[in-house]
């Protein structure tokens, strides 16, 4: 099984004709993703040749859905145009919008997220500033390398793109049902809690790995959710144990003030909810392997 993205997902790429869109569409196609077309109003009616496939380019997301039955859009649009691209996907009621773009102004993210909520949550947003998601062996929507792991029984949700890749590689012998990179901006669509709920409901996911990072209180809220609602074993890692207080570290959301938002505070909240937390990514992977093996 997989969450959010399956072998039946039909994917379009907003910004397919740009350099990043073209490059990552090729990678998605190589990994077996069913990419059915792209969107670029200026090149509507043309076709792009990628990985031996001739993909139609549409003027709008709504037109792409009508013609192809697409239910996922991966958005590779420059930051200043990203808000309009996401709003277009929401208005077309596509089921899943994966916003890869980094550097989208926070007020733009707040605007399109509020629009998604106001229109009935018909579009799940993943990101922005994220690597996307992969259900190994089935589909890959975004920029996650497809060849570092295979299908298996672990569900992974992570704020960090790089740590997503590392965890997938370290646990490649077990494999993953799905890995979801939710992004580290202050305002994101899909949260740790959303992914935890989906993995809890997925019969094929036996263990969950959750990667957070300093700043904000998302991990503390996830810990409270795990305590109340998650029956499967959860292993966690929080990036930023060595970060100095009061500094912005990496992602825009990683701001620490006082003890709130520190890696230690998050670790303690997760451990209080029964989550085993590693001090390094490799230690976290070892904890996950140990727990998985113990389950037989």
Can you describe this structure?
It is a single chain. By secondary structure, the protein is an alpha/beta fold. It folds into two domains: 11-126, NAD(P)-binding Rossmann-like Domain (Rossmann fold); 148-294, Rossmann fold (3-Layer(aba) Sandwich). It is 34% helix and 23% strand. It is built from nine helices and 14 strands. The strands form two sheets. Strands 3-4-2-1-5-6-7 form a seven-stranded mixed sheet, sandwiched between helices. Strand 8 (132-135) and strand 9 form a beta hairpin. Helix 5 crosses helix 9, helix 6 (192-201) runs parallel beside helix 7 and helix 7 (218-229) packs parallel to helix 8 (263-272). The longest helix has 14 residues, at 281-294. The radius of gyration is 19 Å and the shape is globular. The two termini are 19 Å apart. The model has no long low-confidence stretch (mean pLDDT 94).
Please indicate the percent range of residues in DSSP E strands (runs of 2 or more).
Answer: 15-25%
Multimerization state = single chain
Major pleated sheet: 7 strands, mixed
Low-confidence segments, given as residue ranges, are none
The CATH architecture of the largest domain comes to 3-Layer(aba) Sandwich
CATH fourth-tier homologous superfamily of the largest domain: Succinyl-CoA synthetase domains
Distance between the termini: 19 Å
Structural class by secondary-structure content? alpha/beta
The H-and-E topology, N to C, reads as: EHEEEHEHEHEEEEHEHEHEHEH
> Treating each run of at least 4 consecutive H or I residues as one helix, how many helices?
9
Radius of gyration: 19 Å
Mass-distribution shape = globular
Order of strands, main sheet, comes to 3-4-2-1-5-6-7
How many β-strand stretches?
14
CATH class of the largest domain: Alpha Beta
């Amino acid at each position: 099984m997989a969450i959010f993205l399956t072998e039946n997902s039909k994917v379009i790429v907003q910004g397919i004709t740009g350099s990043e869109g073209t490059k990552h569409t090729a990678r998605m196609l190589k990994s077996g993703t069913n990419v059915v077309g792209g969107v670029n109003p200026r090149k509507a009616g043309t076709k792009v040749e990628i990985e031996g496939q001739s993909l139609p380019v549409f003027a709008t997301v709504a037109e792409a859905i009508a013609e192809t039955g697409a239910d996922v859009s991966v958005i590779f649009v420059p930051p200043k145009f990203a808000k309009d691209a996401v709003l277009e996907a929401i208005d077309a009621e596509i089921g899943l919008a994966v916003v890869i773009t980094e550097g989208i102004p926070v007020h733009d993210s707040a605007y399109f997220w509020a629009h998604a909520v106001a229109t009935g949550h018909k579009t799940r947003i993943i990101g922005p500033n994220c690597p996307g998601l992969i259900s190994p062996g089935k589909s890959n929507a975004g920029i996650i390398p497809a060849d570092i792991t295979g299908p298996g029984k672990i569900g992974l949700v992570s704020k960090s793109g790089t740590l997503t890749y590392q965890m997938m590689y370290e646990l490649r012998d077990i494999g993953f049902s799905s890995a979801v990179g939710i992004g580290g901006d202050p305002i994101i669509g899909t949260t740790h809690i959303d992914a935890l709920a989906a993995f809890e409901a997925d019969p094929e996911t036996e263990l969950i790995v959750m990667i957070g990072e300093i700043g904000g209180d998302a991990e503390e809220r996830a810990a409270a959710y795990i305590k109340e609602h998650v029956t499967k074993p959860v292993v966690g890692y929080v990036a930023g144990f060595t970060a100095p207080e009061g500094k912005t570290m990496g992602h825009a959301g990683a701001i620490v003030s006082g003890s709130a938002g520190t890696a230690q505070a998050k670790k303690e909240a997760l451990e209080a909810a029964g989550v085993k937390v590693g001090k390094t990514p490799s230690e976290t992977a070892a904890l996950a392997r140990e727990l998985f093996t113990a389950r037989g």
